[in-house]
Amino acid sequence: MEQTEQEIIKTTKKLISALDVAYNKPGILFWSGFIKGVGYGLGATVGAALILITLSWLLRQLGGIPTFTTWVNQLNQSLPF
Asked: Positive or negative CA dihedral for 42, 39, 41, 25?
């Protein structure tokens, strides 16, 4: 697929505009990246929590893993509280 000269010029102008914002207004770039990072971290945390909750519920429905359950019970009995 060939691009016409007009499309190339339009794409080049968009690229120049984006670079202009990145170099002349680094604050915008920083805050944009910061917000994206916070969103990614929050999404990953919530996603991991949902997966762990689902796996925990599923294991509980299936009776749990015997070796893990035994280990937790032994640990529970050995703790002083």
From this structure: negative
Query: Is 42 within 8 Å of 49 (Cβ atoms)?
Result: no
Q: Which residue's structure tokens are 């917000």?
A: 35
Q: Give a yes or no: residue 6 inside a domain.
A: no
Tell me the pLDDT tens digit for each residue of 23-47: 888 888 888 899 999 999 999 999 9
**Residue range(s) defining the domain that contains residue 59:** 15-75
- 3-state class (DSSP) for residue 67: helix
Q: In total, how many domains does the chain have?
A: 1
Alpha helices (runs of H) in 1-81, residue ranges in sequence order: 5-24, 26-61, 66-78
Which amino acid is located at 81 in the chain? Answer: F
Sign of CA dihedral 29, 35, 38, 44: negative
